[in-house]
């Protein structure tokens, strides 16, 4: 149940979407915030929302219009930071929730950023490369009013990548008349990108997975891992778990679900996906399952790494696993969270589990400012340390307050954000 929020007028109270999920999470943490709770309303409304029209000329000469957003949820601790998503289901509610989760995530791993997110409501698979470039450049120009290396720094998310970041950086540089590599992260190495950035989120998922497994007495060697999403996050996590001796027994993506109880050959699966666009049709497996059957596969570690609101009150009772590592943002609804926590499934929440990407984005931004670049080993070692420290701080709070890891992460993060809010005071 969501408590009575003074909802902003642009939201439909009957259908809050992922933003409603976030508000419920804030309600759960509020009783633990002590005197800082008087500032909690700050977290329940984004600081700034920009909706933009993104028109492009199609290859056939017609004009198409797309709806784009950039939401800056909170900037108490630093400039906005968060990815840009190109997907046909992007909504304002979704971008708002994703921006808020960035606020929590950045504070959880203690990088000096607020939270922001952007998106365009488009199916990029329907666009040619030229159309995608024009879309990206026009969107960048529309949001250039509010982004910048010290204001708000976009990064890749679903269906955006290094190339999209390069176009964003170039467009911003053309508009500003100077080269500001630090305006986006997740760039190609040749443009000031960081070594290790591409793998960072999946690596972070793996690092917290190791910590969680140790707490639960699960050996990584031989552990059965099921993964939804085989993109940047899920694909890298799959490779790292397989390399460490785990068995990746099931993978689902938008094309289907492949299962092998002896462990899929992850390297070959990567090759198949690169060649065919999805896991469907992968040879030598035991079974192709339909979408919903994926949740019934017994595993030791389950990694949702696709989209939000995938684990729901309907499928949570089917899930048989010991640990859930939320690679995706917002994959578990609050109702499902309760069902699984009551069954003692250890859920490492998105705002902690997938923070590796933004952590190396932070390294990239620091390297760009100083024009001094670190080795991959140095980056991976620093990332591992930050993720381990964050996990263990959250674990201590959860033990101390007898709350889930999600509530513990929110307690730690919201306390940091609201302390900054309080000490800054309200302007004017
Ligand atoms: P991606 O585009 O690289 O991969 C997405 C994967 O999800 C693909 O394998 C796709 O087939 C699969 N997928 C899409 N729709 C699906 C569906 N309906 N059912 C099953 N699978 C489906 O995206 P990504 O960068 O790996 O991001 C995945 C999730 O991780 C998102 O929630 C994103 O916000 C989150 N995340 C990403 C990063 C990052 O650095 N890339 C960082 C933090 C969080």
SSE topology sketch:
Blueprint: H1 18-29, E1 48-57, E2 63-74, E3 80-87, H2 92-108, E4 115-121, H3 129-143, E5 152-156, H4 162-176, H5 197-216, E6 224-228, H6 232-243, E7 247-253, E8 256-259, H7 266-276, E9 287-289, E10 301-304, E11 323-325, H8 334-342, E12 346-348, H9 350-353, H10 356-370, H11 376-401, H12 405-424
Parallel strand pairs: 3-4, 3-5, 6-7, 6-10, 10-11, 11-12
Antiparallel strand pairs: 1-2, 2-4, 7-8, 8-9
Helix pairs in contact: 1-2, 1-12, 2-12, 3-4, 5-6, 5-10, 5-11, 10-11, 11-12
The structure holds nicotinamide-adenine-dinucleotide.
Nicotinamide-adenine-dinucleotide is lined by residues 156-159, 201, 228-234, 252-254, 305-307, 327-329, 354, 357.
Task: Describe, in short, the structure shown.
Helix content is 41%, strand content 17%. It is of the alpha/beta class and 428 residues long.
Order of helices and strands: HEEEHEHEHHEHEEHEEEHEHHHH
Going by helix content, strand content and strand pairing, the class is alpha/beta
Main sheet makeup: 7 strands, mixed
What count of helical segments does DSSP give? 12
Low-confidence stretches: none
Annotation, overall tally of beta strands: 12
Average pLDDT level: 95
Q: How big a fraction of the residues is strand? A: 15-25%
Shape: globular
CATH first level of the domain at 200-353: which class? Alpha Beta
- Ligand kinds: nicotinamide-adenine-dinucleotide
Distance between the termini: 35 Å
The CATH H-level superfamily of the domain at 200-353 is NAD(P)-binding Rossmann-like Domain
- For the biggest β-sheet, the strand order reads 9-8-7-6-10-11-12
Radius of gyration: 21 Å
